[in-house]
Amino acid sequence: MGRPVTLFTGQWADLPIENMCQKAKEFGYDGLELCCWGDHMEIDKADQAYCDERKSLLQRYDLQLFAISNHLVGQCVCDNIDERHKNILPAYIWGDGDPEGVRQRAAEEMIKTGQVAKMLGLNTVIGFTGSSVWHMLYSFPPVSQEMIDKGYQDFAKRWKPILDEYRKMGVKFALEVHPTEIAFDIESAKRALKALDNHPAFGFNYDPSHFGYQHVDYVRFIYEFSDRIFHVHMKDVYWSDVPVTAGVFGGHAEFGDHRRYWNFRSLGRGKINFENIVRALNDIRYNGPLSVEWEDSGMNREAGAEEACRFVRQADFAPSDVAFDDAMRTK
Question: C-alpha dihedral over 297, 299, 303, 309, to 10 degrees?
Answer without folding.
Answer: -60
